[in-house]
Amino acid sequence: MLIRNKDKINGQISIIIPTYNESQNIINILKSIKENLPKNIIAQTIVVDDNSPDGTGKLVEEYLKNLKKMTGYTIEIIHRKAKDGLGSAILKGIQQAKGDTIVVMDSDFSHPPQIIPKLIESIKKYQFDIAVASRYINGGKIQGWSLKRKFMSKFATLIAKKGLGIDTKDPMSGFFAFKRNILKELNIDAIGYKILLEILVKTKGVNIKEVPYTFQDRELGSSKLGIKTIVDFYKSVWKLYRYGKPLEKQEKRSSVKFLSKAARFYTVGASGFVVNYVISLLFTGGISEMWYLHANVIGIIVSITTNFILNKTWTFGDRDFKLKKTISQYGKFVMFSSLGALVQLGMVYFLVDNVEIVYPLALILAVMVAAFGNFVLNKKWTFKEKLVN
Ligand code: GDD
Ligand code: MN
After folding, report:
1. Cβ distance 208 to 132 under 8 Å?
2. In testing the pocket of ligand 1, which one of 22, 48, 224 has its CB within 8 Å of the most ligand atoms?
């Protein structure tokens, strides 16, 4: 007889609950998790407490002492010495977990334990690698958040998705499950709050399922989200953004390459401006009114040359200094720079004499306008790159 393995769930589940000052919630959430676990599984819950001043850790110890032994289910607690952040608390729990499937959730009832079976089912039965409890898919929502908090969350989500190229609708969720083995060989830093985001970035190509749920703002205790959390978040996005592509050559998004080269071009331009400005000052010190134009011409010639060398080698990464090619490039660069210089000179003259803006400011304005045109022209004609590539 063919035995169908339908609905049978094998392997151990580890549920990780980070806590900081959750004395009003922790015992109830532990009870609720127990009640909501699917019946036919082996599971462990791991509380990771950061020496909460309100005695959360002690409370759990007391509770465990009086708890009757259960079959197939254990609760344990990890005490860390100090508040070391949500991400690293979760990571600590993952390291200690025995399960092949890991569930991560908050302790303040914002993440309803009723969803746990659905997350486990997505992994165990439908073989997804990651199951994310999601506020931002059909059927999901947020209750009890101010408009400002909602906006901040949406904005951060947008940055994470667009900046890191993630399709998951709620990559900032703190409520998710995953197969432990997807983290094999991975180095998880756990900077900041958002460990799921890091997992999503570092495990591209895995199967992800989103399960809708209603995020309910906490009723007891207070949120630990502060300004540091927000700063850490943007830092971690920046770090993740650079993950796996330390060399500029590996960058594939053309808009990013364009912008990063433009940024270099502007930086070189700024150095040229310093050269230009210093020389101009040297020649205008104490001499007649009209001299600033002449001094500016000398400044421009010197800075064009330094700019050429820096842009060739650094901005466009061209280390080929064969004489003929270099001279021809220099010729074009000078031509475009002269064009830019004409624009710059005209603008400086106009701004100083007609609008009566002070010379240094006029120079800055004029340089900025001329520089962009120069960048585009040089990219295409001098260094023979596609405009956007
Ligand atoms: N061990 C430890 N250490 N736990 C912490 C720490 C810490 O430094 N900081 C926060 N926690 C615990 C809290 O006790 C709670 O159980 C959970 O982490 C979430 O903290 P909250 O302060 O309640 O977070 P929130 O409600 O502002 O943020 C929620 O929304 C995010 C999505 O926008 C959380 O659910 C996040 O997980 C979620 O990503
Ligand atoms: Mn919360």
Report:
1. yes
2. 224
